[in-house]
C-alpha cells in the first residue's frame, strides 16, 4: 500500500480484474505524482452581507383586527382593510376580484354590525322566516386608483331603498390618511325565494327591519342608463368557451358567487388590453343565477377600434356577455360594459 493508504501496489479490483501498478506504464517506471495534487482544494469563502435597499418602500405592517364601526349617526359602516400579498397581481396592484370581495364583505359586515344579520348572505330574521335571500341585480364600479400591496384602505358603506323591491348599497374605498377617494361602487340587491328560485317583492316586515338604517342619498355611482344592444354572435371579437364553476365557486346560497362572474368575463378580454390597460370602470347586469353544473361562454367585443389597433389608444370600451353554451339568447347570465385606460397614463 502506498503512503496514502489508498491503492495497493499489486491488487485486483472489486470486479475481479487485474490492476497494474499505477506508477508503471508498459512495465516502465514513471514519475510519481502525489495524490494531494489531484484532490480539489476546498476554500471557505465568507458570504457577502445581503444589502437591503433602504429606499424601497416596504408594505406597512398592521396589527389587530378591525371589525368596523358605525359613523354618521349610525348610518355609515366604516372599516379599514389591509391589502395582502396574495390579493395583488404582478404589478403589486389589487385585482378587481379583490376589490369586489372586500366590497361584498363590507355589505355583510354592515348588516352584522347593526344586528340584523341572521343567516345566509345577509338574510335578516324576517327574510329567513320567508325563505328569502339577497341576489345581485346590478353593479357599477369606478376606479380612480387601485390600492397597492401593503396599503391600508378605509371602506365606507351605507344602504338605501332602491325602488319598491330593491336595496342599494353604496361603497367607497379611500386612503384613511389623505382621504383620497380610490374607488366608488354602487350595487342593487333584490330578493329571491331560495326554494322556488324566483324573485320576490320586498316584504313590509323586512322593510321595517332595514329602513331605520337607510341613508337617503342617491347612488354614489351615477346610474348608467345605456341600452344593451342585441349582440351579433357572428361579429363578436373574442370568445372563451367551456367555462365551468368549481365547487369552491359556490356560496352558501348554493349558486355561483357574483364575484366569480367578473373573472369569467375577463377570460375573453384580449391579452393586449390586459397587459397595456387597467380597468377604469364597469357596469354589470346580472340576468340569472349560475348553478354548479352550468357550462358557460364568455364573449367580448371591443368597441370602435381604429383599424384593429388597440395598443395606441388612451381609453378602450368593451361590451361583454356571459351566457350558457347551450341556450342561445335565453341563456344570458350577465352582460356588461367595461372602460379601460392605458397604463401609460400613470394611475
TrEMBL record:
Its EC number is 3.1.2.-. GO terms for molecular function: acyl carrier activity; fatty acyl-[ACP] hydrolase activity. Residues 74-209 form the Acyl-ACP thioesterase N-terminal hotdog domain. SUPFAM superfamilies: Thioesterase/thiol ester dehydrase-isomerase. Its main location: plastid. It comes from the Eukaryota. It is an enzyme of class 3 (hydrolase). Residues 237-339 form the Acyl-ACP thioesterase-like C-terminal domain. The keyword Transport does not apply. One of its GO terms (cellular component) is chloroplast. It is found in: Plastid, Chloroplast. Keywords: Chloroplast, Fatty acid biosynthesis, Fatty acid metabolism, Hydrolase, Lipid biosynthesis, Lipid metabolism, Plastid, Transit peptide. It holds the Pfam family Acyl-ACP_TE. Belongs to the acyl-ACP thioesterase family. PANTHER family: ACYL-[ACYL-CARRIER-PROTEIN] HYDROLASE, OLEOYL-ACYL CARRIER PROTEIN THIOESTERASE 1, CHLOROPLASTIC. Plays an essential role in chain termination during de novo fatty acid synthesis. This is Acyl-[acyl-carrier-protein] hydrolase. It comes from Mikania micrantha (bitter vine).
Amino acid at each position: 500500500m502506498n503512503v496514502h493508504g489508498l491503492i495497493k501496489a499489486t491488487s485486483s479490483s472489486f470486479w475481479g480484474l487485474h490492476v497494474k501498478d499505477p506508477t508503471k506504464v508498459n512495465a516502465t517506471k514513471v514519475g510519481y505524482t502525489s495524490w494531494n495534487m489531484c484532490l480539489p482544494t476546498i476554500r471557505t469563502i465568507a458570504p457577502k452581507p445581503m444589502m437591503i435597499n433602504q429606499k424601497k418602500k416596504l408594505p406597512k405592517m398592521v396589527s389587530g383586527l378591525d371589525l368596523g364601526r358605525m359613523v354618521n349617526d349610525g348610518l355609515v359602516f366604516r372599516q379599514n382593510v389591509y391589502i395582502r400579498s396574495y390579493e395583488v397581481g404582478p404589478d403589486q396592484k389589487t385585482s378587481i376580484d379583490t376589490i369586489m370581495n372586500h366590497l361584498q364583505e363590507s355589505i355583510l359586515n354592515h348588516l352584522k354590525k347593526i344586528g340584523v344579520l341572521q343567516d345566509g348572505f345577509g338574510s335578516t330574521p324576517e327574510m329567513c322566516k320567508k325563505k328569502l335571500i339577497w341576489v345581485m341585480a346590478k353593479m357599477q364600479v369606478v376606479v380612480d386608483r387601485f390600492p397597492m400591496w401593503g396599503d391600508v384602505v378605509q371602506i365606507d358603506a351605507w344602504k338605501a331603498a332602491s325602488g319598491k323591491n330593491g336595496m342599494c348599497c353604496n361603497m367607497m374605498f379611500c386612503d384613511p390618511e389623505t382621504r383620497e377617494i380610490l374607488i366608488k361602487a354602487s350595487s342593487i340587491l333584490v330578493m329571491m325565494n331560495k326554494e322556488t328560485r324566483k324573485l320576490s317583492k320586498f316584504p313590509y316586515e323586512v322593510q321595517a327591519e332595514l329602513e331605520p338604517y337607510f341613508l337617503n342619498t342617491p347612488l354614489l355611482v351615477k346610474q348608467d342608463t345605456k341600452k344593451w344592444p342585441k349582440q351579433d354572435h357572428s361579429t363578436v371579437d373574442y370568445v372563451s368557451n367551456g367555462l365551468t364553476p368549481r365547487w369552491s365557486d359556490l356560496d352558501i346560497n348554493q349558486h355561483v358567487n357574483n364575484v366569480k362572474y367578473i373573472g369569467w368575463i375577463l377570460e375573453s378580454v384580449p391579452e393586449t388590453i390586459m397587459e397595456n390597460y387597467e380597468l377604469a370602470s364597469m357596469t354589470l347586469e346580472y340576468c340569472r343565477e349560475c348553478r354548479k353544473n352550468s357550462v358557460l361562454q364568455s364573449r367580448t367585443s371591443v368597441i370602435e377600434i381604429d383599424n384593429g389597433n388597440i395598443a395606441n389608444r388612451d381609453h378602450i370600451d368593451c361590451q361583454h356577455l356571459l351566457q350558457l353554451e347551450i341556450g342561445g339568447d335565453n341563456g344570458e347570465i350577465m352582460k356588461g360594459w367595461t372602460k379601460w385606460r392605458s397604463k401609460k397614463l400613470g394611475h
